[in-house]
Amino acid sequence: MYLIAVVEQADPQQSQLETTGDVVLRSRSGSVSLESTKDVRLAGQQAVTVETASLALQAKEASFVAEKMKYLGTEVTATVGSTRVVGKVYEAIMDRLSFLSRVTFRAVEEVEHVRAGSLDYRADKSARIHASYTMMTGEKLVKVDAKQIHMG
Q: What is the pLDDT of residues 47-106, one digit of tens each?
């Protein structure tokens, strides 16, 4: 593509570079920068693809909207002040889940089910289970062990 001359620019507020076919903007020995005092927009009717060894994004505020999102990788590390997830269904499937917290509060409006091979709860000070009806059953053994046992 050769530019022979520019006779007159139709709109001095807007410039447009247009061609038929593929376009490659390449620097053989340096960097390529796109800069603007306003916005920089990338648009592709079919796709926008970024391929690189390292990708860094820095912004004061970021927004991402997608109908479906997939992430495939070996590790995610995030350091945030607070996290809020709102949705209809949340599923996590993993070999091990560790959760450490100073204070935990969980409210379940209907039913909570726990199915485990073994279940171990331990409280250093006190433990309380309260309901209108409380049932404990054991197929072979129910053991209550303490210095004092109050019933009734």
A: 999 999 999 999 999 999 999 999 999 999 999 999 999 999 999 999 999 999 999 999
Whether 40 contacts 59, CB under 8 Å: no
Please give the backbone phi and psi of residue 29, each rounded to the nearest 5 degrees, phi first: -140, 5
Contact predicate 98/104, CB 8 Å: no
In sign, the C-alpha dihedral spanning 104, 99, 101, 88 is negative
Query: Cα angle vertex 57, ends 55, 62, to 5°?
Result: 140
Q: What are the residues whose beta carbons fall under 8 Å from the beta carbon of 142, sequence distance 6 or more? A: 136
CB proximity list for 32: less than 8 A, separation 6 or greater: 25, 26
What global pTM score does this model have?
0.61
Q: What is the DSSP letter of 12?
A: T
* Residues 9, 3 contacting (CB under 8 angstroms): no
Please say whether the beta carbons of 22 and 29 come within 8 A: no
